[in-house]
Design a protein that fits this description.
The chain has 10 helices and 6 strands. It is α+β, with helices and mostly antiparallel strands. It has one domain. The strands form 2 sheets. A 3-stranded antiparallel beta sheet has the order 1-3-2. A 3-stranded antiparallel beta sheet has the order 4-6-5. Helix 4 crosses helix 9.
């Protein structure tokens, strides 16, 4: 975990999965620690790596997860905050409501977002005194694409992961992502230049790190 953190800080940007830059991902950097015997590995490290507030994590790279160092996160935030990934105004309005709900609550995990918006996630049971079932079907909203767009726009980031706990107090299952805003997690993250200048600084940094990779691939990576 310490070595992976060093790599993220060295490169500034580090995708979790396969990216437009061949061989550049957490999967490629940690080939010997993807065991299936319960041992800690990159999946389990995500929470501990975020708790020091020295790394940002989210679906930043083509809607796929990855890390960004604090050296480069202000520039990434500065550039991506000019983007709008919603396909239409109605979708953008729903994205805004989700982002505002998370900001108002401070942080919410995936299971808490819709209830915090006042949207039931299951069918209400018919009451004994009701002659007619008035519960109706639960509203169906797919959060995954909404959260993906909000992370691509860097309006939210992953704060940590919440786990279910058994009767013995042991955590189990996959962690449930908990989200917050960059401002709440990191404080003042403003870059002291224009979004266009931030983009050029990031691109030049990647050119130095990957001199054999074409600008087309690097630009695809930055999005």
């Amino acid at each position: 975990m310490e070595h992976l953190t060093e790599l993220i800080n060295e490169y500034g940007f580090f995708p979790f999965f396969i990216s437009p830059i061949p061989g550049f991902s957490v999967i490629d950097a940690t080939p010997g620690v993807w065991q299936h015997d319960g041992s800690d590995g990159p999946w389990q490290w995500k929470g501990p790596m975020l708790r020091d507030r020295n790394l940002a994590y989210g679906k930043f790279f083509n809607r796929k997860h990855g890390y960004i160092s604090m050296e480069w996160f202000p520039h990434f935030w500065n550039y991506r905050s000019t983007k709008n990934y919603a396909p239409d105004p109605d979708t953008a309005a729903l994205d805004d409501i989700v982002a505002q709900t998370i900001a108002a609550e401070g942080h919410l995990n995936t299971k808490q977002i819709l209830p915090a918006m006042g949207i039931p996630t299951g069918r209400r049971k018919r009451q004994a005194d009701e002659l007619v079932d008035q519960s109706g079907p639960a509203v169906k909203i797919s959060l995954d694409p909404i959260l993906g767009r909000l992370m691509m726009e860097v309006r939210i980031v992953t704060e940590d992961f919440d786990y279910d706990v058994d009767k013995h107090g042991h955590q189990y299952g996959w962690g449930i992502a908990r989200y917050t805003t960059p401002e709440l997690m990191f404080g003042n993250i403003k870059a002291s230049c224009s979004p266009e200048e931030s983009y050029e600084l990031m691109l030049e940094h990647l050119r130095r790190k990957f001199p054999n990779i074409s600008d087309t691939q690097l630009k695809r990576f930055l999005g």
